[in-house]
């Protein structure tokens, strides 16, 4: 998901970083989901530490950074996205463009277009597979921002990139069934229903709008954005070789995953 949800940019300091002042309206922008974006430090009570709910932030951050590094080196999807971003003129520097942070419980990651940075929520991503999914999802947002001149202030643009990320990085029959978007008796529209459901939840988390407004935006752009499979080129089926095939095909489009 992204967390830009205003018609104006947030206040920035001389380096272009959003102001950490509490007056900039964090709930309007969604930064309340990403407190470290505002310079807030996690607060832990003695009980939280005693029960293991807090006090392990540094260890989780290190584990997250290790998972990010392994995904960058070994995940076919992540490597494909790194190559596509480089080809589009937006090469990834792992030290600059990816940040492991503590977030609100309801989010696993996000893309900050102001800082051009992917956030991995180390308190909510417990497995390397989850980190891979978040990186792929958020790299699609970054790719759209770089390649397609995406305007996150435009609701239709936001709906489009969330549709594309759900379509290419998340939805399969199994995930749709687990999310309640299909059943063994209803196969038709399964994947599209999953994509719409995932896109809706991401938009609602990022923007202070009504469900009807989000649904209307999704329906306006769905057909075009659902059929846009770049740069992965295919919908990834679970327990298949699709990820590896997509990565191998990236060679023909000049996708070089070697980072600087």
Number of helices: 11
Distance between the termini: 26 Å
> What's the structural domain tally?
1
Described by strand count, sense and barrel closure, the largest sheet is: 3 strands, mixed
Strand count: 3
Helicity, as a percent range: 40-55%
Report the uncertain regions: 4-30, 173-179
Pairing-aware structural class of the strands and helices? mainly alpha
Evaluate the radius of gyration. 18 Å
> In which order are the strands of the major sheet placed?
1-3-2
- Mean pLDDT comes to 78
H and E order: HHHHHEEEHHHHHH
InterPro entries: Peptidase_M76_ATP23
Biased composition (Low complexity): 17-28
Region (Disordered): 1-36
Family: Belongs to the peptidase M76 family.
Characterise the protein shown here.
With 260 residues, the chain is mostly helical. The protein has one domain (53-251). 48% of the residues lie in helices and 5% in strands. Strands 1-3-2 form a 3-stranded mixed beta sheet. β2 and β3 form a beta hairpin. The longest helix is centred in the middle third of the chain and has 20 residues, at 128-147. The two termini are 26 Å apart. Mean pLDDT is 78; it is low at 4-30 and 173-179. This is Mitochondrial inner membrane protease ATP23. Its EC number is 3.4.24.-. Residues 17-28 have a biased composition (Low complexity). Belongs to the peptidase M76 family.
